[in-house]
Amino acid sequence: MTTTAETPHAASGQHRDLARGVPDVDLSLDVGLGLDVVGGEIAETAAEMDLRQLSRLATEVQTAGNSATGRIFVAGAGRSGLVLRMAAMRLMHLGFDVHIAGDATTPAIRSGDLLLLASGSGTTSGVVRAAETAAKTGARIAAYTTNATSPLAELADVVVIIPAAQKTDHGSTVSRQYSGSLFEQVLFLAAEAVFQTLWDNDATPAEELWLRHANLE
């Protein structure tokens, strides 16, 4: 009886897939190779990062976050900006005063604050302008980029170089992935490492961080 009841449903599902032009192809091998490429490139690139640079950036974040008056601002464009938004959320969970550039309620940056930026090329116009504005106010600037000689790197007090291909370097031998994917992936890993380091040193119970999670969604 069960087989009789399920067969028409399964058959109708197959007909719908065929009608939508979905081919019956097993891509498990290709997906596995893709995982190997992405995971391998992330591991290799992360291993090449200068941990002293990342340590200095973590110290900048900790100093601003623990200050009675200091605040942390993040700014980035595209996928890099999305990664920094995730980083900002985690820093907020630690109890830091964090703001995302461009949001309606973001206040003016000032001396004693930290601006955390990310741009693979180091030339993204909006990100560079944010750094210039922060520099004029006397705020500290920390940046992730692939380009140590870029305008962004020159403006930053602390620079973390992620040795990945830039998004316009389509012929790069550094990565098989498209555009700036590798930079963005390792950026996420680096931001998570900074959070983990600060949390380990702070030793605030996870239950306390949980109380800071959004309850208006």
Q: Would you spell out the secondary-structure blueprint of this structure?
A:
Layout: H1 2-19, H2 28-47, H3 51-66, E1 72-76, H4 78-93, E2 98-100, E3 114-118, H5 125-137, E4 140-145, H6 151-155, E5 158-161, H7 181-202, H8 206-210
Parallel strand pairs: 1-2, 1-3, 3-4, 4-5
Helix pairs in contact: 2-7, 3-7, 4-7
Q: How would you describe this protein?
A:
The chain is an alpha/beta fold and 217 residues long. The chain is built from eight helices and five strands, in the order αααβαββαβαβαα. The longest helix has 22 residues. It starts with a helix and ends in a 7-residue tail after the last helix. The model has no long low-confidence stretch (mean pLDDT 90).
Question: What are the main properties of this structure?
Answer:
5 strands; 53% helix; 5-stranded parallel sheet; single chain; 217 residues; 8 helices; alpha/beta
Give the end-to-end Cα distance, rounded to a whole number of Å. 45 Å
The rough form would be described as globular
Low-confidence stretches: none
Tell me the helix content: 40-55%
Report the major sheet: 5 strands, parallel
The run of helices and strands is HHHEHEEHEHEHH
Strand content: 5-15%
Rg is 22 Å
Number of helices: 8
Order of strands, main sheet, comes to 2-1-3-4-5
Task: Please give the number of β-strands.
Answer: 5
- Chain-averaged pLDDT: 90
